[in-house]
Request: fold
Amino acid sequence: MKNTFISQIRAGDTLSDQFVLSEKTMAHKKDGNHYLNLVLTDRTGSIKGVVWDNVGSISSQTDSGRVVAVQGHVGEYRGTLQVVVKEMKMVPEADIDPADFMPVTERNIDRMFQRLVALSESIETSCLKDLFSAFWGDHAFVSRFKRAPAAKKMHHAYIGGLLEHTLSMAILADKIVGHYSGVDRDLLLSGVLLHDVGKIREFSYDVRIDYSDEGRLVNHIAIGVQMIEEKIQSIPSFPEDLALMLKHMVISHHGSRELGSPEPPKTIEAVMLNCIDEMDSRIQGVREFMAKEDPGEMWTSFHRLLGRHFYRGQSVT
Amino acid sequence: MKNTFISQIRAGDTLSDQFVLSEKTMAHKKDGNHYLNLVLTDRTGSIKGVVWDNVGSISSQTDSGRVVAVQGHVGEYRGTLQVVVKEMKMVPEADIDPADFMPVTERNIDRMFQRLVALSESIETSCLKDLFSAFWGDHAFVSRFKRAPAAKKMHHAYIGGLLEHTLSMAILADKIVGHYSGVDRDLLLSGVLLHDVGKIREFSYDVRIDYSDEGRLVNHIAIGVQMIEEKIQSIPSFPEDLALMLKHMVISHHGSRELGSPEPPKTIEAVMLNCIDEMDSRIQGVREFMAKEDPGEMWTSFHRLLGRHFYRGQSVT
Amino acid sequence: MKNTFISQIRAGDTLSDQFVLSEKTMAHKKDGNHYLNLVLTDRTGSIKGVVWDNVGSISSQTDSGRVVAVQGHVGEYRGTLQVVVKEMKMVPEADIDPADFMPVTERNIDRMFQRLVALSESIETSCLKDLFSAFWGDHAFVSRFKRAPAAKKMHHAYIGGLLEHTLSMAILADKIVGHYSGVDRDLLLSGVLLHDVGKIREFSYDVRIDYSDEGRLVNHIAIGVQMIEEKIQSIPSFPEDLALMLKHMVISHHGSRELGSPEPPKTIEAVMLNCIDEMDSRIQGVREFMAKEDPGEMWTSFHRLLGRHFYRGQSVT
Amino acid sequence: MKNTFISQIRAGDTLSDQFVLSEKTMAHKKDGNHYLNLVLTDRTGSIKGVVWDNVGSISSQTDSGRVVAVQGHVGEYRGTLQVVVKEMKMVPEADIDPADFMPVTERNIDRMFQRLVALSESIETSCLKDLFSAFWGDHAFVSRFKRAPAAKKMHHAYIGGLLEHTLSMAILADKIVGHYSGVDRDLLLSGVLLHDVGKIREFSYDVRIDYSDEGRLVNHIAIGVQMIEEKIQSIPSFPEDLALMLKHMVISHHGSRELGSPEPPKTIEAVMLNCIDEMDSRIQGVREFMAKEDPGEMWTSFHRLLGRHFYRGQSVT
Amino acid sequence: MKNTFISQIRAGDTLSDQFVLSEKTMAHKKDGNHYLNLVLTDRTGSIKGVVWDNVGSISSQTDSGRVVAVQGHVGEYRGTLQVVVKEMKMVPEADIDPADFMPVTERNIDRMFQRLVALSESIETSCLKDLFSAFWGDHAFVSRFKRAPAAKKMHHAYIGGLLEHTLSMAILADKIVGHYSGVDRDLLLSGVLLHDVGKIREFSYDVRIDYSDEGRLVNHIAIGVQMIEEKIQSIPSFPEDLALMLKHMVISHHGSRELGSPEPPKTIEAVMLNCIDEMDSRIQGVREFMAKEDPGEMWTSFHRLLGRHFYRGQSVT
Amino acid sequence: MKNTFISQIRAGDTLSDQFVLSEKTMAHKKDGNHYLNLVLTDRTGSIKGVVWDNVGSISSQTDSGRVVAVQGHVGEYRGTLQVVVKEMKMVPEADIDPADFMPVTERNIDRMFQRLVALSESIETSCLKDLFSAFWGDHAFVSRFKRAPAAKKMHHAYIGGLLEHTLSMAILADKIVGHYSGVDRDLLLSGVLLHDVGKIREFSYDVRIDYSDEGRLVNHIAIGVQMIEEKIQSIPSFPEDLALMLKHMVISHHGSRELGSPEPPKTIEAVMLNCIDEMDSRIQGVREFMAKEDPGEMWTSFHRLLGRHFYRGQSVT
Reply:
């Protein structure tokens, strides 16, 4: 069990706690002896570490990317905090609470998933019904889909974030779809539900949220297309044209090449999916950013990526 | 009354009809005599014209930018159609139906306006209620607001288009606003209603839709800010902070400098307004483009500005 | 059999010849009668056509996208040539020579393919050998791979162009791979051979070269990844890491998002594939452009896409 | 009165001095007790501070954005200087010299202003004369106009900078206007004088130079247009066309959308205003940068925003 | 001597006049016989031509890029005018007035040159005085410098345009240089005089203004650097540092890589040269564009490159 | 002789070693006394230094940009290492090994140069043979050419790097030139050999690699053109057209204006040179980056300029 989080650590503290061993690299001193450089993380941040003694045995007993129990003392080195680690060993799976190491959605995952399934059941086209039966019946898929984050940073970057983002978009789509005639509700809703499924493999999120090898090399868009193709193969006589339009919604949902979509949206449903995705990502991203800081200040700090401060205003209306 | 529209004219036709005299320039032949080059338009397009005889009297009796009755014969010159005009004179106001010369919304303008006013009445903040009373009580404003287009091309580029676009966005805003906690409904709705009011002066739309001098020189964003400032001045003790947030929504609704907004959205309501505006403009733009062409074709022609064909698909679900 | 090509047609000609009926749309005259607007193409260009008589029977007997035998007379209308079509009917498959309608590589397709297979046989990694056995053993694949173009315009835009481009790159890769230590020859060569396989479905090329529905909606990169995934599934215990690196080479071979690759090259072999692809595309594109025009002129005409004239120089050395 | 400036402070110093309390945020220690994080600034830079004792009373007696008298000791924490503050209280207005906290023009403000007024009096068009009478007769305006900076960084970023920049441009305009025939001197000069007036509200500059709420939300261009509109309203029968051209010069003076102007310059005077503004901003920006560093070095340090070193050269001619 | 200019030619005219034979390419008819395609130009535009008879002898007696006397008849072909040429032969040098074929400055070339030389004589640094003595003493240089255009399109695109542009900038520099302390007048003026000298070789302008081979391959910036280096070599002990700063002004005068300068301005004089060049090019470009059209219209036509209409306004002040 | 390299220095070390004195600036303490701020570098990095005592004599005896022998003690100041220097004096030329201060190619410089000369001797065009005789016969040129780096960072940023890069490209060109018909081997090879010769003056590389004044002000492209022009002047009747094409290859080898080439490649040989240069720079840049880090890690650290991690993979084939 975790006692102290990294954001609370101060120079001079004595530590005895769990962390993810994010990086571990061997180096050698001028006298030829070896030492270990570490990066330790939990859900509040990261801190550097160093091992001077028992280097061989400590290194051979710990794997990077796993949770370790660390004992040590906190000092400063070249302007940043550094833990001088005395002991470090692997923590048994059973003693780990992933929520210590990764942020988790504040909403109920099972209830969100039930609501999403219910929305998918309002789809009337039979082959699309079959498609969602195939997805929801795939336990390995569902298990990962319920836990995956929607991003590493920016918005919904927490366990359950993908589900939360997908559900939010599905509810929006449901509200909006009737507003414009000529939009196929079943196609739009299916596209919303599936547009980001590739993210369950794009990220790893066992004890910390990061890109997986497949995520960095192949990207969630191409992963998603393959996942949909695989499920469609299992459904007899799934219409070719419908399969293309579904994959197209995955391919084009970022809106343009510059934003990572090899093709721009070319159907009215793909245009709408792109709009709903942008709306949910942007608004949620700004809300998360504004919520992180003192709500009493009129202006937030500077948002580096978006290039601006945000304004909370005086309580207005 | 109009008989034939420009899109139907063929070489060899004899014409006797009303057109907008969009351009009229004097030129001279090698023998020193003068002639007139014309551009005639109606709601379906434009055609070139030339006057060889009675140049002086015809020119002195007609003003460009007005509706004229033309008699002439249609030929070809250098690969385009050209009307050799025999007679041309001004048409009295009473004989003009503006709908012959500019496209008009297919929806009922008065009913749209009533619905918009009703939505504005759901606002609870008293100074904002006062603000809309000021706008709706200004008959010159209302008269122009009900007729203005939302654009010269692209989307809602017709009489009543601004009202249709604003109403569509207001309904969307009303549906969506409850989806995200922490968004001020009164502020969002007010921003939606006012974000494009500057367009009533940015365009001229008496007999053809074009930019006005003020539109080209000052732009609907700066015009809108002045219009709001003027109305706010008429309301006793309108809160300074609320005035800034309203103007900010007008200033930032295009989303970025590249798209014409001097400042990007910095409040959650401004971010949301920008999303709703983009959604309505894009979807309506694509729908209008797809509707213009043969619905039996799977693909539309190439959309030059958006750089793609759009796909209608086989009837899917 | 074809007699005259479109580039040779002049106003006043009488036509009796085969063309691809690229477009056929019904329109109606002011008197309410119908007529057909056509676009006819062959490998040298396109020409407009119109059918005034027997509209119903001619339209019902012909399908757009197919080869038709046309009888008619050539005139001018609004500055372009136009065929007034008297008769038009479908041409039996047996009487069609695709080379009349699409440009074809000047090199021997079978010999190119043998050389490509031979290069693939120099690969030593056994699972990659298995992969190419799977591809070359798929007759439907090979048949399309030997005919597909590499592009619609720009470079290798002809039947056999994909094979010619792939072979040229494979020979280059073979020459260069030893120049830099640390590059895996088997991986590089496999990536070269497979990087564009998705193009066999991205284009249609029965009687004219154009994008297919799948090409426009899904794009050759995502198609290629699916094709490779499908073949890999058929090979027992294909290493996961190798599969990712192969797909990554397909995903990243355009080099950047702006150029259509969702991920940039992240392995040394992917960087090299991108360089070889750019080199072959650019040099061949420039060579084709320079070859199209009078070799006696020092400067070519202006290349619109590349934004420059090219210089042939005086015969120098 | 100030003794020591922040740029001179060293670890180990004991401080008793005035600073602007730029930021003040409450935080709590692991033991639950509160402390204050501060940022203190003066005209030479900023330094962090922390209050461990008497947190409640110190916090309640000081407001951020105001000048405070600080007693404390300077140490280092995580690689930067930090003042451990023992006492901190507000400084009475009378004891504050703003020049301690913000940089101030080296030139005489009153003399610059007289020269500017004299230039405005050389304008001959009567309604423009009236306009400047209205501005110069507005004491609140004049008082702020004489103190406002022209920027937060980059160039003329000091008290009096707006006046200095405007005067410099007016003198340049006066020199150049006769060089090109067809330029209206009165219009150009009026545009130069008014182009940046919105900056008197875009910035706050009581004890430190920063953006105001209105500056961040509405931007000096839209503020300036409103200020000019307000003054024009007070002048009977100010010509509509002239008002548009004046506002257009304000709207377009940054030259393009990317640089913040909703419309590009569309009159010859607006084009010229844009050129003169760029020339004065760039040259003055480079001169200020070159002057900040050791004039004996041939090369300046790297200018991050402009992406280059500047060269002073050996004394040449 | 020329009678008629191309802008005045109409279908049906009989021609007997001088033109520049800009292009001449041999083609063959279906019957195997040859014909010539021509492009004829004069200072008002260009027109297509065709030679059906005496093709061999006409072709062998005429060179493209030279002035020819043409006899023929004007018709239309595919929507553009076309001269059917009966006779065409070279015009002796003596019978050619270059001003018929290229636009020429409206100002007195010799008087402009004298004024420029006088300005150069106000330079006090002796080695720079020597440099200008070397340039002005080079008769081949002076002869070309007095005739060269400053551009092919956009601004000063006429014989004498380079001289006019350089003189205008030199006068501006002279007016402005004292406005900013710390600017070396001799260096600034020398940079202004020499910044575009490479254009005397970048363009050809014997009978029509076009890029030369050297212009297209090497570019006026690199040509100018070579010309200056060559003259500097002829001056004993020209200071190395001064030579670098002069060349730097040539290299950097376009301001950025995107605009064609390999290095951005890095001295205060280079920054100033860039500003003066932009000011003169932009203002003169806009003035020429506005002067080309009917001064009675409030708005010009659309300026394609600058992306806007320009406003002349009602006569204001 | 050097003992310790900067990358190995730790707080607490006592130093007695050689460094390049990269920067030396005088400052003064609050008490009015002077001290020196230093930057010391060697081939592994840089470290800050300060001199408190004997400031005058130490400063007068040492020049920045030269190698000095330093005695001092290493501490930390504001989060970085700092040497408190007790003694510092110039090192005689004879005691300096440049390889201590700058990275050096791992390959044999003389053998590389011989191979390059041999390749140049395979050129058959006599005037090009003469040109290379002129270059190789210029001892000052050869001496600098063999030592110059190809860059300050990124790729081949070490002594001998220019030669290594040029040779690598020449070998590639030799392999590839026969692959495309119509490419002039002599021209391509000459362009490859000369494309970067300007770098011998763009950089200074006596004791550390940095840009020279000429490099920053004039740039290697314009320097290279001047060097080639100078050598060509020495060869009787060198063909003008060939000279232009050679210079064009230097001018255009970066491929586009954005990348620093004033003109894009306009000959087939220039296109090919640009491709070969990009290939060698990119692949070598990635290889150097991947080699710098632990080869046991699957992913490299983040490459800031290229915006990605690189993947080494599991040993694959």
Q: What stands out?
A: Chain E has a mean pLDDT of 93. Chain E touches chain F at residues 213-214, 216-219, 221-222, 225-226, 229, 241, 244-245, 247-248, 251, 257-263, 266 (CB under 8 Å). The first strand of chain E starts at residue 14 and ends at 28. Residues 119 and 171 of chain E are 8 Å apart (CA to CA).
